[in-house]
């Protein structure tokens, strides 16, 4: 894959490896715990109110699995996340996030440069679209994953690093989540509200932004370390 940046087992500066992937899981569990109530409140407005609880439970379970499992590659870590979320997260989030991480695991190389980050995010997005049948501006997590994957690809085209790509992706995901507020929901439980969904941020888009921000934080920490 074009995103692998290993020559004789040595990664290039600014690339991301399995240590980053494990740190991402740890940061994800932390951010889901911290934002549990905020996500519940978002979901209460246009859904059934369980998104924060489900995501917190899911990533707590992922963290427990990770701590007792040997992982040699980024793909191993992402596959573990996928399987655990599918078995522990209820509602639509479990299958959607599970499929996203599973597709991402298959796209991940030993280490990731900017192109590799874009490949992984595009694979995750493709999994979500295939599973949820949603498009951009349907007021779903696609509205965060789409801009994130595009931002990472832009960094790759400009010759940036993997760390820069994941940071750009996180910023784009957050902007995408905010941009769901004026939209009318066309998919999922929120779609039943029609025009009443306007003015509320999509909880799945916001949890996506939080997870990608955790990825960026783990990348920055790894670069400093």
From TrEMBL:
Organism per entry: Ruania alkalisoli
Name this protein carries in UniProt: Dihydroxyacetone kinase subunit L
Gene Ontology biological process: glycerol catabolic process
GO cellular component labels: cytosol
Keyword Kinase included in the entry's annotation: yes
Domain (DhaL): residue spans on this chain: 19-217
Entry keyword Transferase: yes
A molecular function GO annotation: glycerone kinase activity
Keyword annotations from UniProtKB, A to Z: Kinase, Transferase
InterPro entries per UniProt: DhaK_L_YcgS, DhaL_dom, DhaL_dom_sf, Dihydroxyacetone_Kinase
PANTHER family referenced in this protein's UniProt entry, alphabetically: TRIOKINASE/FMN CYCLASE, TRIOKINASE_FMN CYCLASE
Organism domain of life: Bacteria
